[in-house]
């Protein structure tokens, strides 16, 4: 018979360490940009709240819907600095960030053929100080100040969707999958200057995978 599960609203506290290449004190000189580690990085911590409903009409088909909210303390983001010389990529903590949204997952089989689809809407926000140039009305010279700019988190798209067409044949030992992934525009690199972040436009990826059993010992992929 169909089964359904409602996961209660839960609170989980998580801590994430910086990656080694982000934390160690090094400097790499490149053709276009330099890269520096930051030994002063702090661990990221987060509070996570989730509410998820899952229903299983049978052993193969799934429908899941969920809501989530996350408060991230000291998130680590890749940042582009410029101090008059060659731009430098480094990693920094930027206060607190907030993520909330919903996700839907559907898996449905029609004998040997199946479809798998999921969609996530994610609204993220963080504020970080940015360098801002102001031209003086009296002297005509530029003066600088810092302005807190509210923006999405680096690497976080508002819209992410995946659609897969599936085929399986247990008797022949064959599985095939054709997948399309959509990722909405996102900040690729955070700039140190006000309203100068680098964005990646909408991204669409199409992929195909196949695996076939060859006898009892081998698999061709």
**N-C termini distance:** 35 Å
Percent strand equals over 45%
pLDDT < 50 stretches? none
Major β-sheet annotation: 10 strands, antiparallel
Query: Which descriptor suits the 3D outline?
Result: elongated
Order of helices and strands: EHEEEEEEEEEEEEEEE
> How does the helix and strand content classify structurally?
mainly beta
Essential attributes:
mainly beta; single chain; elongated; 10-stranded antiparallel beta sheet; 6-stranded mixed beta sheet
Topology of helices and strands:
Elements: E1 3-16, H1 20-23, E2 27-29, E3 34-36, E4 44-56, E5 62-73, E6 76-81, E7 88-93, E8 96-110, E9 113-135, E10 142-151, E11 159-169, E12 174-183, E13 186-191, E14 198-200, E15 203-214, E16 218-220
